Amino acid sequence: MMEFNCVQFLQNKTILVTGATGFLAKVFVEKILRVQPNVKKLYLVVRASDSEAAMKRLRAEVFEKDLFKVLRENIGEENLNTLFSEKVVPVAGDISTDCFGVKDSNLRERMQKEIDIVVNVAATTNFDERYDVGLGINTFGALNVLNFAKKCVKAQLLLHVSTAYVCGEKSGLLREKPFAMEEIRNEAGHQLDINFEMELMKKRLKELHDQDCSDEDITLSMKELGMERAKLHGWPNTYVFTKSMGEMLIGNHRESLPLVIIRPTMITSTLSEPFPGWIEGLRTVDSVIVAYGKGVLKCFLVDVNSVCDMIPVDMVANAMITATATHAGGSGVHMVYHVGSSHQNPVTFGEIHEISVRYFTKSPLRSRNGSLIAVSKVRLISTMALFSLYMTLRFKLPLQLLKLIDIIYPWRSGDKYGDKNRKINMVMRLVELYEPYVLFKGIFDDRNTKSLCANQKEDETKTSKGSMFDFDPKGINWGDYLTSVHIPGLITHVLKK
């Protein structure tokens, strides 16, 4: 089923989307409403106390965003409101609970009777998330979504959004293949037991509550436990570890339900749809670009030859729709798609740095007082050992001197040592979290995605239509995209907000 049929496929379909206020989910929802207003229903799951509060959140955080301005201009405000009220059903729910915690039995029954496609985009993406939260949403939340999909009598497919980085810190060409749980063993040879991980977390949480620990201490302990367990089993952080376990659970329990897993790489601003450069929040590589533009980034840990695998968000949404139309109702489907650029159109961190230098030299940002911020080349350090040495010589030794001055002259205003020490610790923490990605040596094989894309392009030729569902990374010119689309998009939609 190809491009022409994607639009046709969406007609009269009832689709459930979790995590509907997230960056990718709202691009996915906007695309469906724009290209196929005759979709039957969109059940959008958001965290809220009731359906009224859910609709309020959807309006404020989804439909009133700039993202919907093209649709608004195309059909007018009144028609857009009518479209929302006719097509969108807000569901106040939480995927970390059974049946999303939907208390209204009529709504639950209606959903289970009507839904054709279930799309799980809900996730917590904090690298060092609390272990209880990560397990609740990314691991067992995914299983709850699967169990709900299995109760939907008309369900033709579960499309689950994961991340390409479930591969951990492997190098070389990384295949699009599902996890086999029995293959997951740590260095000591122990097999990963997901239920044991859950029990361990609950036991630790109970101990912390029994000891009357503060909320702050509980959060810190839960974060440390997540990172500790992730590293023990060979993953760099809690986020990718809990996402991996989520994939394993749904792969193991899917039974006859067709399952498609989309593994995007680092998702960036829209390439073209609904308009170029729309983004929300600072994503992985963006915080580094912005810090550089603001003149605060003087050195950074990165291998200039490492490939930075980025993919525009509209391409991910297009791949999701195409994969859904292709596999819905298929028998024995358990497909994995890497949606990224490293295999077919790689760009290195060194190239991104050069492009950023050129951009901010030519178009500098302004500081709060209105003066232009001058940028200079960043000192790029390619190993953690050298970076730690640089930080010690450049900052930690002068900091010891500052501590001495604070002790000798306690009447000096402010705690300069404490403040600077906190900042340095924060930098080191950030660098440790980013290290697996900025020194990453893997390339994501995307032969499944390439084949999906080729079939869709073949159909385009037959129908003489423009590319409505393009997700071919070869078409991206990284210099043009970063300079004319992505960085201006960051400035307009993130910095100026």
From TrEMBL:
One of its GO terms (molecular function) is alcohol-forming long-chain fatty acyl-CoA reductase activity. Residues 17-320 form the Thioester reductase (TE) domain. It catalyses: a long-chain fatty acyl-CoA + 2 NADPH + 2 H(+) = a long-chain primary fatty alcohol + 2 NADP(+) + CoA. Residues 397-496 form the Fatty acyl-CoA reductase C-terminal domain. The lineage of its organism: Eukaryota, Viridiplantae, Streptophyta, Embryophyta, Tracheophyta. Its EC number is 1.2.1.84. Belongs to the fatty acyl-CoA reductase family. GO terms for biological process: lipid metabolic process. Catalyzes the reduction of fatty acyl-CoA to fatty alcohols. CDD domains: FAR-N_SDR_e, FAR_C. Keywords: Lipid biosynthesis, Lipid metabolism, NADP, Oxidoreductase. It holds the Pfam family Sterile. This is Fatty acyl-CoA reductase.
